[in-house]
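Record format v2
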Amino acid sequence: MLSILVLNGPNLNLLGTRQPDVYGSTTLADIEGMCARHGKQIGFDVEFAQSNHEGVMVDLIHAARGRHVGIVMNAGAYTHTSIALMDAVASVELPLVELHLSNVHAREDFRHTSYIAKVALGIICGFGAQGYLLAMDAIKAHVAD
Ligand code: DQA
């Protein structure tokens, strides 16, 4: 079965208790369950990962090549800073959807910059946990094309 990597970056392990007014009360484990169930519905395996470390995220992106047909990535704050993650995505040449729970464009100016957007298929932000499922659908539609 075709597989999607859902990769989460720093501080997202704290979802549920981290600034619930901004990020909601859904935990990362809840999101993992939602993604697994949605994967079954749309016919994709899902590998779910989280790391607080930029280099580990680079390694996970490299390892995705040949194993997954696409990546959904919420890189957290690394979105706004990481040339290394941008280069990793460009290197593996897999379709990637950039994902944010919050609408980053309605927030501080520093969140309006994304290195990941430069190499992403597209961006989904502002729809909370539901955004992960929309991003999976976008990968599916892209692969079917
Ligand atoms: C986030 C938005 C980022 O700006 C922030 O640093 C995060 C979470 C989001 O999901 O809304 O850690 O990626």
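Helices lie at 20-23, 28-42, 54-64, 83-92, 130-144.
The mean pLDDT is 97.
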